[in-house]
Amino acid sequence: MNLHEFQAKEILGRRGVPVPEGQVAWTPDEAARVAREIRAPRFAVKAQILAGGRGEAGGIHFGATAESVGKLAGSLIGRTLVTSQTGAEGRTVRRVYVEAAVAAAREVYLAILVDRAKGGVALVGTEAGGGDVEARIRADPGLLATLPLEGLRRPDDAALRGFAGRIGLGGAVEAKATALMKALVVTLLELDATLIEINPLVVTEADDLVAVDVKMVLDDNALYRHPDLRALKDDDEADPVELEAQRHDINFVRMDGDIGVVTNGAGLGLATHDMLSDAGGRPANFMDIRTTATSLQIAKGIGLLLSNPKVAVILVNVHGGGMTRCDTIVEALGIAVRRSGRSVPVVFRVAGQNAGQARTMMVDRRIRHERVDGMADAAKRAVALAKGGRG
Q: Which CATH number applies to 239-388?
């Protein structure tokens, strides 16, 4: 779950990370009022959307008076902002964050994250922070320093001091940097976050550290442990299709391909995507049917595929086990087809609990399909049908 900048800053601020004074505003008048309350010599007015690249897209402005802040907020609220991370459709700005602008002597990049490639948590950073830091790191990976947290143990002060020096936070700011990194480690572990990114972390002329921009991502699967954080989720910014699927116990991500994918289990879903890609195909979605999903809920997820005009074929690749049986998937498929009134070719591959019954049901219910027993063969056949035209 992505948090807005103002939410992430409030969390870090309570945990000792220095952040600029600021408040969220929903209207131009509110923005002007916030500026008058802060009484800074200069203000930053930032569009609050769940995507990076706001500065390059005109989503961050600066003003010196409350009146100018109100006008800047008015130019942003209600605007559709298109950034490198929003896609062509962009995101609508519903609120802005008004904060005291910070003069930077230097800008540093600092983050703590779950390193999925290495199966652990790590602090990463570079003294070359700022808006184009990702491009610079891609061009020169050696810019990025890393400090792994072995076994999720909190690093000792000596390790943190050494890391601070590697990213330009030694000397006069070393102690402050060490305290800040400790706060990041504790926050990530206690809140089940997967990423806390500060870019830039500003070093001022007075040798103070200020987190000028913050990105925080929480693990959706751990939100049951944090009901207070679950309330921070912004459904207005969620993909309505993905949100609808989640309400029906299905993990669903829309993609831009033409092969609808029905799978149970994230690992099986990812393997199916890999096989489709290897065969030259493009998935229209990622789907992971949760074990608690009923046939009616699964039918809702399949219905989302059928409502997508780009979907030319549906690949069912299911392993029945636990609480999701193969015949439950067929019940759901039949319901979805009847409800939608649209029929596309179905490549059907099932194994495990009630697989034989499911195959019989597909025939008895006259669901147009091709049965394929091997996963790789099923992926190849789905790709071939997608390239051959719509059903």
A: 3.40.50.261
